[in-house]
Design a protein that fits this description.
The structure holds three protein chains of three kinds. Chain A is an all-alpha fold. Helix content of chain A is about 80%, strand content about 0%. Chain A has a two-stranded antiparallel ribbon. Classes of the chains: A mainly alpha, B alpha/beta, C alpha+beta.
Chain lengths: ~325, ~375, ~375
């Protein structure tokens, strides 16, 4: 187990490096360099500061080969926690990013918990009572969940909220708490506002996981070990939970790791629709404004989150499946 | 019945019908099977694949998978207390049958690899079974599990408790499964082709083990196989099944030396004899097991039968005929063809069975008599 | 299921009539037989074909072009199509709609529309209005339905913020949104089959490398990655170029799933008897791949493709909705939904949700169809 874990962690490192490089390439994609953007900005305010631009070029190695630039960027992040400068906000990227990332994590994690808590029991029920009314309802809802894009679902939720409850939903915090310091009351306020984006982000994932749990459990229910367990005299419920459900959870855990990138994607777009103070809107704004250091940092950190997520899922996988642990 | 009256019966299967209700139609996997299992003996159930052997075994424990269901018949378990219970009448998920499964009747399966959970240790699965039926603490159950593993010949039994199935060899897996099945000292052990997935050497050792355990524990064994070689090795009594019906029931000797049913004879010719050098020259049984939705009329074996009598075999379902040797056979060669239709013939079959077993039935068990008659009339 | 499992192979081997026909039927016919049983998949297949027909004949089906606007009818609600008119002189039949009454609230400067029963706008099938060239070739002037008087307001699904006909715009959007999926999937297919095939066929280091790349790409959250790529598309590019760029961007992730499916199939087929037999018979590697392996997993690939198209449609919609995918004047469902971003506008003009309904219908149809194909793809199961 220990060796497996270490191997898996070592695996993640090259992945993180490649991701950081891809993110960095995104900075390079738009025509012109960061210095040009800043220069253009300065031009508008009619005071081009040559030495400031030189300093920027020096700092990011803008006139040097791309690998040098990458090295300057990544070493800044790794050694000094320096993610570069956001020119839209005129501030360093790092402090801008952390709180937003934190809230993204809160939203993604809660959506993740929601997905698991909802999809596993429904999937089990659907498989055990195959072709029952409940199964049909769950399956149809599952299909609808797959077909409704998360941003559209977010819009529909907001529409319903606004139209029938007269509440303008959007944001994580009630007006009283929006700019307040962190406190328990603010946390409670966050939680009370969290359910709607959580639902919007989690719907598609719930739908596909219900399908996965159902399909896998249906497969498992016909395996010989189920009949063998029944022949032992176990009651249906305890044998169901101990054997087929346990085995059906193995592909579930394996899929859950791949669900995280989707949830982060969903959180990004839902946040834009519901104007939540997560990475989403800021990422969009930075991309539209070609604020590339901010955008690249966001993309890298979000991807990093999912790499860590899949790492956790792989470790969980080894915990539920001894065949992985011992080979 | 082989051996005639006076034999102590453990289980009686009477007119058992287990059908599978699929979208394409009804598969009559078991369609009116009758045979007894005598206490302390080894009964082999033989037949080609798809003849309903496994489904019969599973019907006894009521663990037939969906969409299969016992639609008719009785499975009478005679307890030592003279009490008789009908397993077929019990609810498949109810407490009553669950108390019998594993405790009074245990089962081992064809593929130990897929019949044991791959994600639980052997010890966990055996302890679970012991604690389910016997009042023991986990520690006591674990000790017992270790003893059992040792008893079935697994070296370093104590350590093996913490192994997973995939860490054991094929033979060891089957030994572990046998140990589990024996853990509550069942009266009847049903072994569903337990050696099919094993190589020949391992098969022999497992057969020896089952034989030895049967003798030592004075256990009854119902052994399902398609291999007459295995039958010769371990059987006391033999039940030959074809297409969900029992073709012939006899003691092991007459099956080999005086087979009655043409199907038994055909099975016989299909086993390699010692000294045969050319494997390809083996005689296969003519034709194939028919499509499950298209069962032949009359005697279901007639399209493949060497002694097919046109106009009779394809019209009249043969009743059970009890021979003097004790063999029960369902074949028109031995009478029953004078019957003028399925109804009478069916009734005749039951009469024959009842007659043959009359001596075996203790007066107290006479309760089963009228129902058999009912059934005959209903059929 | 030991018993039926045992019974089924016996059934396949048996020489009864049905079994014999089953054995002789070609693989594709078997797939079709099984597919036919999935009623939902069958219906979905018809829906998909209809949607593509709409895309193909958009100019003819849409009453108006995408930029025809009547600015004082911004956010006009949908009109009800009427057939029967009760007049003093009796009952008259004919297609028509009523015009709008508009009141402007002086305070908020908002218009509220009502039905003006005095103003009858006659419609006709094959109405003559703006000339167009079908597929850029055939000059035509007739549209399936339209007002007799070309300039009269006709909004069967309401108007957008500029007073443009949402119905026509959704029809034109169908063309873009549905082809984005197709083009994107084709690109993914080429990449996926190529890399997945190489990975699965050769195995070893090549496989390991491609596997890692696939894993890393897949572990990146798609929307942020797509956003980053799409935002790099220069503003001055032509709509056509942007369109192809977007499909390429969508395939950057899409190919990994296809490649995985292909690779898995290659791995399992590599050791199949018929492949080994073909090799022993002296077939070249390429021959083995093309004439033995590819046909045997073609059906799976088609199923995977069908299930990938809706993902592409949703992705394009999402990007365009965010304003970094396709941009006006190109009309796609996502571009149309961008109009629906504001909840307050939605509450007064809920018909702006309708492009979303189009997305849902298309995606559902593709999903059901793909599921049906996937289930039918393995006829020997």
């Amino acid at each position: 187990m220990g060796r497996y874990f270490i191997r898996r962690v070592l695996y993640a490192i090259p992945a993180l490096l490649v991701i950081s490089f891809i993110s960095f390439l995104l900075i390079q994609l738009p025509p012109g360099t960061f210095a040009d953007t800043v220069a253009a900005e300065m031009m508008e305010s009619a005071s081009v500061n040559e030495s400031a631009i030189r300093a920027i070029e020096e700092r990011y190695g803008l006139n040097q080969p791309i690998m040098v630039q990458y090295w300057k960027w990544i070493s800044g992040i790794l050694l000094r926690g320096d993610f570069g400068e956001s020119f839209i906000w005129n501030r360093p990227v790092a402090p801008l990013m952390w709180e937003r990332l934190g809230l993204t994590l809160v939203l993604t994690a809660s959506a993740f918990i929601f997905v698991c808590v909802v999809s596993v029991p429904i999937g089990i029920f659907s498989a055990v009572r195959q072709y029952s009314v409940g199964d049909y309802i769950a399956t149809s809802l599952g299909f609808l969940g797959l077909a409704v894009p998360s941003f559209l679902f977010a819009l529909i939720l907001m529409y319903i909220g606004f139209r029938y409850f007269g509440t303008s939903i959007g944001g994580f915090f009630s007006p009283d708490f929006a700019r307040a310091e962190w406190s328990w009351a603010r946390v409670a306020d966050l939680l009370s506002n969290l359910w709607m984006p959580m639902l919007a982000v989690g719907l598609a994932g719930t739908a596909s996981l219900i399908r996965i749990v159902r399909a896998n459990l249906l497969d498992e229910l016909l395996k010989p070990y189920v009949a063998a367990a029944r022949a032992k005299g176990l009651s249906e419920l305890s044998l169901l939970l101990k054997y087929p459900v346990r085995l059906a959870l193995i592909p579930f855990v394996a899929t859950v790791g791949w669900m995280l990138p989707q949830l982060v994607s969903g959180a990004t777009i839902v946040s834009v629709v519901m104007s939540l103070p997560t990475t989403g809107p800021m990422l969009l704004r930075s991309l539209l404004g070609q604020d590339m250091y901010l955008a690249a940092s966001f993309i890298m950190m979000l991807s990093g989150l999912t790499v860590i997520g899949t790492l956790i899922s792989d470790v969980l996988l080894a915990l539920v499946d001894p065949r992985i642990r011992f080979t | 019945m082989p051996g005639g009256g006076g034999r102590d019966l453990l289980l009686e299967i009477k007119g058992l019908k287990t059908h599978f209700f699929t979208d394409e139609g009804v598969v009559k996997a078991v369609d009116g099977a009758d045979f007894p299992i005598a206490r302390g003996k080894t009964v082999c159930v033989v037949g080609e694949s798809g003849c309903g052997k496994s489904v019969t075994a599973r019907s006894i424990l009521q663990i037939v998978d969906r969409p299969g269901r016992i639609v008719e018949g009785r499975i009478l378990l005679h307890r030592e207390s003279e009490e008789v219970v009908d397993l077929a009448a019990m609810a498949p998920t109810g407490k009553a049958i669950r108390a019998i499964r594993g405790k009074e009747i245990a089962m081992i399966f064809q593929e130990p690899m897929s019949s044991l959970s791959p994600v639980h240790t052997i010890g966990n699965q055996i302890v679970e079974m012991i604690r389910l039926h016997l009042p023991m603490t986990t520690e006591q159950a674990r000790d017992r599990a270790a003893e059992l593993l040792e008893r079935v010949g697994i070296p370093q039994a104590g350590r093996r408790l913490d192994s997973y199935v995939f860490q054991l060899s094929g033979g060891m897996r089957q030994r572990a499964m046998i140990a589990m099945a024996l853990s509550c000292r069942p009266n009847l052990l049903i072994a569903d082709e337990p050696t099919t997935a094993l190589d020949v050497t391992t098969e022999a050792t497992i057969l020896d083990l089952i034989k030895e355990l049967q003798r030592d524990l004075n256990m009854t064994v119902m052994f399902i196989t398609h291999d007459l070689g295995v039958v010769a090795e371990i059987a006391d009594d033999v039940v030959v099944m074809y297409l969900g019906k029992v073709a012939e029931t006899a003691a092991v000797d007459p099956i080999f030396h005086d087979p009655k049913h043409p199907y038994t004879r055909a099975l016989h010719q299909s086993i390699p004899k010692f000294g045969d050098t050319q494997r390809g020259a083996l005689e296969a049984i003519r034709g194939m097991v028919p499509h499950p939705f298209a069962r032949p009329d009359g005697c279901t074996f007639h399209p493949r039968c060497e002694s097919f009598m046109p106009g009779e075999c394809d019209r009249v379902a043969p009743p059970a005929v009890v021979m003097e040797s004790g063999t029960t056979v369902r074949c028109l060669l031995y009478g029953g063809s004078d019957g003028s239709g399925a109804v009478r013939d069916d009734a005749g079959g039951h009469a024959g069975t009842a007659g043959g077993e009359a001596g075996a039935r203790a007066p107290g068990k006479g309760a089963s008599g009228p129902r058999a008659a009912d059934q005959g009339a209903a059929g | 299921m030991a018993a039926p499992a045992a019974a089924v192979p016996a059934a396949a081997e048996s020489s009864t009539d049905t079994a014999a026909t089953v054995q002789l039927a070609s693989q594709w016919r078997l797939i079709w037989w099984r597919f036919r049983k999935h009623k939902l998949a069958l219906v979905s297949g018809v829906v998909v074909i209809l949607v593509y027909l709409v895309a193909a004949f958009a100019e003819f089906l849409a009453p108006f072009s995408t930029d025809r606007m009547i600015s004082n009818l911004a956010y006009a609600p949908p009109q009800r199509l009427r057939l029967i008119e009760q007049t003093d002189t009796g009952t008259r039949y004919g297609l028509y709609v009523y015009g709008y009454t508009a009141e402007v609230d002086m305070l908020s400067l908002q218009r509220t529309f009502g039905v003006d029963e005095s103003q009858r706008i006659d419609l006709r099938l094959l109405a003559k209005s703006e000339p167009y060239k079908l597929w850029g070739l055939i000059p035509l002037q007739r549209h399936l339905i339209g007002p007799v008087d070309q300039s009269a307001p006709f909004y069967p699904l309401g108007a957008d913020r500029l007073g443009r006909d949402l119905f026509s715009r959704i029809i034109y959007g169908t063309r873009i949104s549905m082809t984005v999926g197709l083009v994107g999937v084709t690109l993914s297919l080429v990449l996926g089959v190529l890399l997945g095939g190489v990975s699965g066929y050769f195995g070893g280091t090549v496989d390991l490398l491609i596997q890692r790349v696939m894993e890393i790409l897949r572990s990146m959250p798609t929307i942020p990655l797509w956003m980053g790529l799409a935002a790099a598309i220069p503003d001055f590019w032509s709509p056509v170029l942007v369109y192809f760029m977007i499909t390429i961007i969508l395939s950057v992730i899409g190919w990994t799933w296809l490649a995985q499916a292909v690779r898995g199939k290659f791995f399992s087929l590599k050791t199949e008897d018929f492949v080994i037999a073909a090799k022993l018979d002296g077939c070249s590697e390429l021959q083995v791949i093309l004439s033995h392996m590819v046909p045997s997993f073609m059906s799976h690939i088609i199923a995977t493709l069908t299930l990938a198209i809706p993902q592409m449609i949703i992705a394009e919609t999402a990007l365009s909705f965010l304003g970094i995918g396709l941009r006006p004047p190109v009309v796609s469902w996502g571009v149309l939904l961008k109009e629906a971003q504001n909840v307050r506008v939605l509450v007064t003009s809920p018909w702006l949700f309708l492009p979303g309904a189009a997305v849902i219908v298309a995606v559902l149809a593709f999903n059901f169809l793909g599921d049906g194909i996937r289930d039918a793809a393995d006829p020997y199961k």
